[in-house]
Amino acid sequence: MTQLVAQNVFSGQTYTTNPADGENALLEAEKKGLGQLCDIAGRTDPASRRITVEQCWRARLYQRGYQRLIPRKNGGWSLPGAGTAWGVGKVEQNNTDTGQINVYSRDHDVIVSALSSEVPKVRFYPHRTSEATDVTAADAANSYKYFYTSSNCLESKLGEIASSFYTDGIAVCFTRSVSSSKFGFIDSSEEGPVIPETASEETTSVPTNTPRIREVTTVFGALEAKVPTSVQHFEDMQFLGISWEEDEAVSKATFPAMATKIKPSGCGVAELELDRTARLNVQMNMGVGYTTGDTLERQVTRTMWFLRPSAFMEFVGDGENGDVLRQALITKFPEGVMVEYAGSELMQATSLNPDDHLCVLHSNPGSGQNRRSLGNSVISIQDRLNRLSDLQMDYFTRTVPNRYYDSEAFDMQMLAQQSNVPGASVPFLRQPGVPVSELVFTDPALQANPQMLQLMELFEGQWAQDMTGALPSLIGGAQDTNTVGNAVLQRNQALQRLTFPWQMIKRGVCCMTKQAVQQAAKNGNDSISDTVKGLGRIQVEISDLRGNVLCYPESDSNIPESWAQRQAIFLEAVGQISQNPFYASLLAVPANGRVAKDAIGLAELEVPGAASTEKQQAEFDLLKKSGPVPNPQLQAIQEQIQQGVQHIASDPQVAPMLQQLQQQAQSLPPMVSTVPVMQDGSEEHSVEAAACQYWMISPEGRTYKNGDELQRAAWENIHLHWQEHSAQAAKLAPPAPPPVKASITIAADKLPPNLQSQIFQEYGLESSPEDFEQGQTHEVSTESETPTTDGGKVKQVVSISGAPLK
What we know:
The structure is a single chain. By secondary structure, the protein is an alpha+beta fold. Helices cover 42% and strands 16% of the residues. The chain is built from 26 helices and 25 strands. Strands 2-14-13-12-11-10 form a 6-stranded antiparallel sheet. Strands 1, 6, 9 and 15 form a 4-stranded antiparallel sheet that branches. Strands 23-25-24 form a 3-stranded mixed sheet, with helices on one face. Mean pLDDT is 78; it is low at 82-97, 188-204 and 482-487.
């Protein structure tokens, strides 16, 4: 049956609350015990949790543009009347008031853009280089990471992490395998994955319309994730909860066997109802209007509680029943458990290790889990700026002076009916003996404090930017400089403020990618073969991922580089090619062609040699499977020689043919690579040879060269492949041009004595100017060869004669 809703796939055993599932069903005591543990987790640290929720709720509303918030008694926020100076005058509720100078959102956009401008590159290494499975797994993981980055759109995930850093101060990343029709289906003709250690001649068939399994990462903030506040590190957390809201129909499709029990509701823990209200309020952009009734009629709160085995110690001291329950839970969930709820109903529990799926990241160092967010320091500045802007608007709108008229001199009813048109001429009767200035006068205009605008500029600009680190140089707005170098320096200095959150993002990418590799190795149901932008098609066998690997960032850069920065570095290198041969050698490497293409920014640009490099990289997967094989051409010739030896006595003409075959056999190598090389110009042999050479000296190549017997054989296979491409490239290379002869004759006797002597000394003849002044005559003839750029040589003949100057 075609799957309608994506399903999480875990390697551990899943136990349901449906009694019809038999051995896979939880006992009544176990359901009650897990419910008790989840209830304890939900009620832990209620005061600090409420502070965390209200802080994050306010920050997310500020980011959405809802500010001037007043806390409500029972939690949440309300807005004062629009157009009033913070409660002065009549208050009118306006839940869509966004009329402020929003520096909080401005700095949010700058920080998020800076932290998500580049996805950190990671690299996998074998846990033990002596283990072939670990080396194979590291190699496969280094290919799989590109697919994971592309399929998860990791750039947007980094943006979500950076945004959560700014508003919440924490980000929780949940990585798991997901079976979904959106990844496509496995055909019934495809074969299931084969594990090398348990491989057999029989293959397992895959049912028709089986959805593919892929690894997915989801990012949650403080409103969605609950952690014990007083714990310092994730490894010490005995629980972690993730909650979100979804439509009732989606929950029922996820748990069809329990659909009748699923009702729109919260998680059933009173202390977490404020969390639910805050999430729905922010997600639906309701400002401070909380939520609507029709929303609550459809929304089901889904909750996942991750519990470590230490949580089971809660039942110590409950007598014999407690000991039995604790032992039963430890037996079923030895590494930990994930308990899933739909509303207040327990759906299922899965045995898993939380460390294999979760990653907790913080924007700042600190104590406990409720740490300062990146945008927390600018909230007070935003509040003061809002007050000043309201006061400034009051000066403009409420201090328009009133005019007073003499009621006897003017008809007030007619004045009210007149239109106030600039430049109009309006006649009036003048009172005899009374000056006009005494008939009409105006209130004195009030002037705002001139320092108010200066203070607003500081709040809006320098002070807010100093607090958050969102300096103008982060987005190219360098100040007090007219040079590019100083602008780059200012940007680097601004980015140094973001070193810690950037390091956390790099750590998170390593953690998520490693977890994805581990989950793919455990749960994958087909090989991965897909096209990745910028890399072409990648092929990864799930069985190759089953090994122990380590994951680290490829570089230790403290700050992310933008595309504009990389483009500037590239263009600077191109401009120095004529002065620096090193840059020319870098661009001559075909593998660097794609980097140059990305730096130029023209997607339609065809990079010379890029296709051949990708082709050779794909062939590495085949070459690394085995060692070299006997040369089939040599085997065929040797068979002909053996047949000829049997007939040499009866046929004299066989002897010369045997001699020719033996000479041909001596010219052929005994072993060849497992991927044949074309013997014509249909392949770019020099480019593919360069790709092979680069692999042989790479860390992976060195590992294979010094590895076990199979790895050394694979290295020799690639080495032979390199030799074959190099030999064919030499055969197809154009012949060197013949040397060009040139002769130069210098009439040195027409020059002064000192120049004549200098010329003769340059060509090996000792002389002095006095020799030429005395009337002596000298002759010298030399030959030299000078190499040319096309591989040829120029022969030069120089003949010089010297005589006294006349």
